[in-house]
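Support request, please re-run this one:
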Amino acid sequence: MALTEITCEAVLKAFTEYQERGREKFLSHYGYREARSEDEGIVIFLGVLGQVCD
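Re-run finished. Output below.
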């Protein structure tokens, strides 16, 4: 998927799912783990509505 294909609607939908599932279940569902430090690679945080996710 190209970055140009990522829409605001899709981001907000994913964020809503993150809130509904909770951090651990959301990350586990998609095969991710929590971001711990920048030493592990590039860490991208998405701040939406005053919250930070990883």
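The chain has one domain: 7-53. DSSP finds two helices and two strands in the chain.
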